[in-house]
Specification:
Layout (H helix, E strand, L loop, with lengths): L3 H28 L24 H20 L4 H16 L7 H15 L4 H22 L3 H14 L11 H4 L2 H13 L6 H19 L10 H17 L16 H16 L18 E6 L24 E4 H9 L7 H14 L5 E6 L4
Antiparallel strand pairs: 1-2, 1-3
Helix pairs in contact: 1-2, 1-4, 1-5, 1-10, 2-3, 3-4, 4-5, 5-8, 5-11, 8-9, 9-10
Length: 371
Amino acid sequence: MTSPISTIENERVNSWLLKVTCVYWLFVKSIGWRMFTANRLFPAAPVFDWMDKVPPVVHLILFVLSLLLIGLAFFFPKNKLVLMAVLIIEVCSCLLDQNRWQPWEYQCIFTVFIFLVNRDRQASIVPVFTFILASTYFYSGCNKLNEGFLQNIWSQMLLRSFFKLAVARQSWLYYFGYLPALFELTAGVALLFLKTRKAAAGFLILVHLFILVWLGPIGLNYNKIAWPWNITMILYLYINFIRDNGNGLIFSELWVGWNKLVLILWGILPAFGVIGYWDSFLSSSIYSGKSPYMIICISNPEKADKLKPFYSTGNSKFCEAGATILLKQWALEETVVLPNPELRVFKQIKKKLEKEYAAAGLACYIVDNRR
């Protein structure tokens, strides 16, 4: 039976976890507001085609309601109706555009879900949330064990662009890039056990601090929406593990009620994502270097003048003349949010753009790095 002291401690830790989540969620949705509304040029990719006919005002209403309800969840963390409303609004919004299926959005949704289904079992919240954190790091590391990570992230973004080091392929330093992936997935597993969790959390906090330097203003100044996520993950690690609140991971909690859904969606299905049979963003594939990308070629740029702010200065082997747009860069510049890198999403966007800008001779090319 849970003692009054542990009950008070559980509720205090739970309160901090939800408050941190709500503050982060409000902030990140506010800076990425264009992705969660229809006030943008970047095409939406709804789950069903008929959703393209949903008026822009509906996107806006869902966005405003989302902010209001997340704010209410901050103050009323045990209110069933508030938590349910947050989930319903977020799911409806994400159905209207799959580009909203961001790793951080997915994590926040499930954090609220855990609080909802365990509102009468406060001691279950931290163990199940711990499983989500461990899954995030484990599968993030697994997804980095590929040649694309070595080439695009480790060699290009980190060694060459950040450390200004030219690295030859097949060199020892090049293959040294597999170590961060192995360390990350090992730390994820270590979070599951009381004897190793604090050391693993300390290591991961250092990793997040380095990422903030690497991607932040004094580094590459890239992907601004990732900065607050790294800060939030540091707070999660500190609250959950460094403070040593005494909550170990009880695997039996994952078999209780709706927690089984967490086990399936965070423990089992991401394994299929590693081999390309589940969405990468839903499998903690973060900076894995293997995501597909899309290049847009415009033969007659004067016919697509409103896209001019997103033209790329680099050359592409796909575009012989005219203008080039990198879809990922377009999304970042206009919405501050990365596009969902799934082929079905790219094909939807490709179809829309080629139809809308046919007079400009627009053509889209999708490159699948997983092949």
